[in-house]
Amino acid sequence: MPGTFEKRGAFSRALSYSFPVFLGYLSIGFGFGLLLSDAGYPWWLSALMGVIMYAGAGQYLAVGLFAGGASLLESCLLQFVLNARHFAYGLSMIKRFGTLGRRRYYLMYALTDETFALYSGLKDEDPGILFPLALLNQSYWVFGSLVGGIAGALIPFDMGGVEFALTALFIVLMIEQYFAVKRIKGFIITALIAIAGTFFLPSRISLLGSLALSLGLAQFFTRQNRGSQC
């Protein structure tokens, strides 16, 4: 049964490769469940959102929008701006996903920042690991959110600083990516752009503006490097 053994091997590799995300999602999913429960929502809603919505930063933002009584239009616009970076993620994965049949639709849906970071470290010749990797990552998030929601409903917590959990995970993934590619220039430029965008751009477009500028500069330097190699 070579197909069965191959699937088991892909799942085992995905399990090992996704372990850092498991630790991160368990923590920030737990934090999300706590926040949602603290806002007065039922414990099971945190897990349901992890299944249907599955957008870490977007779900954290949604808690604030729910609590603040934001309109549907305002919520949609803010979520669009926050998650616009996924256009870039998706475009870079078109070739990989195109060979995976109907599974590609789930992979498009499950392409989070952390999953994309893991995909970026994989070789193009290893497509079999993509689906189990995405599935495991989502299960980690749903489990962490569920535990957090239950704990928030049963135990009183001090919620100060919980929102920083997602940022902390992004920092850890950035460090992992640096050790994978070992090209410090791109990380420094992106960090400087993000800082400049925070100070000089309106808050509602700082994320999207910084992302657009970073992608533009990345494309420019890529072309420069290709030109110098010719």
Task: Describe the model.
- This protein is an all-alpha fold and 230 residues long.
- It has a domain at 2-161.
- 79% of the residues lie in helices and 0% in strands.
- The model has no long low-confidence stretch (mean pLDDT 79).
In short:
This protein has a domain at 2-161.
Q: How are the SSEs placed, and which strands pair?
A:
Blueprint: H1 2-17, H2 19-38, H3 44-52, H4 56-68, H5 72-83, H6 85-92, H7 94-97, H8 103-109, H9 113-120, H10 130-154, H11 164-181, H12 184-200, H13 206-229
- The level of helicity is over 70%
User: What is the alpha-carbon Rg in Å?
Assistant: 19 Å
Order of helices and strands: HHHHHHHHHHHHH
Bulk shape: globular
Please supply descriptive tags for the structure shown above.
mainly alpha, 230 residues, globular
